[in-house]
Amino acid sequence: MNQHKRIEILKRLQAAIPEPTTELQYASVFELLIAVILSAQATDKGVNKATAKLFPIANTPQAIYDLGVDGLKEYIKTIGLYNSKAENIIKTCRMLLDKHNGEVPEDRAALEALPGVGRKTANVVLNTAFGHPTIAVDTHIFRVCNRTKFAEGKNVLEVEKKLNKVVPDEFKIDVHHLLILHGRYTCIARKPRCGSCVISDLCEFPDKNID
Ligand code: SF4
């Protein structure tokens, strides 16, 4: 795909999605971190339902740590992989208290050192909470980028590197949420909604679903 098309795609997505941000509910950087850890292989809706009960009771590293693994599980047991997520979150809270004064660090290496926090989670927190131009690639973005040929790659890291290369600086803050929301609601996995897609004339997917 040429750069002219890419920029046009970004402009159209920006016009179609005026508030490109996360659908996870959060009121602090710490709440966002916990919500993103919980969202791995789970829907934002499911996470929001659980955190709506958890956060009014505990929304600081100390308060969640004090719940303990079993206490935390009670709030998140509707979410996939909740056993390991509960363990990781308690360890993360301990580490935030011991090493970061109870604050979420604005630093990739420090974030990735937290249990349950991988590259994608660190990218989301740096981008969404701290306004860094980092581009997290999840399953939706991976699919959209390869399908459209906007930024092709064999794995999420390759797509992330390609996006960093081809996305102009002025779009870097928003591109993650623009592509994720486009993938979640229009360029969906099974039957992409090409008939109502605002970039269908620019997309290079050969098997468009136009009924
Ligand atoms: S035209 Fe279809 S395949 Fe291409 S981006 Fe739109 S929904 Fe996805």
TrEMBL record:
Catalysed transformations (reactions): 2'-deoxyribonucleotide-(2'-deoxyribose 5'-phosphate)-2'-deoxyribonucleotide-DNA = a 3'-end 2'-deoxyribonucleotide-(2,3-dehydro-2,3-deoxyribose 5'-phosphate)-DNA + a 5'-end 5'-phospho-2'-deoxyribonucleoside-DNA + H(+)
Keywords linked to the UniProt accession: 4Fe-4S, DNA damage, DNA repair, DNA-binding, Endonuclease, Glycosidase, Hydrolase, Iron, Iron-sulfur, Lyase, Metal-binding, Nuclease
Residue positions binding [4Fe-4S] cluster: C187, C194, C197, C203
InterPro entries assigned to the protein according to its UniProt record, in alphabetical order: DNA_glycosylase (IPR011257), Endonuclease-III-like_CS2 (IPR004036), Endonuclease3_FeS-loop_motif (IPR003651), Endouclease-III_FeS-bd_BS (IPR004035), HhH-GPD_domain (IPR003265), HhH_base_excis_C (IPR023170), HhH_motif (IPR000445), Nth (IPR005759)
Domain named HhH-GPD: residues: 38-185
Cofactor: [4Fe-4S] cluster
Biological role: DNA repair enzyme that has both DNA N-glycosylase activity and AP-lyase activity. The DNA N-glycosylase activity releases various damaged pyrimidines from DNA by cleaving the N-glycosidic bond, leaving an AP (apurinic/apyrimidinic) site. The AP-lyase activity cleaves the phosphodiester bond 3' to the AP site by a beta-elimination, leaving a 3'-terminal unsaturated sugar and a product with a terminal 5'-phosphate.
Family membership: Belongs to the Nth/MutY family.
Annotated HAMAP family: Nth (MF_00942)
Name of the protein this chain belongs to: Endonuclease III
Organism in which the protein naturally occurs: Actinobacillus delphinicola
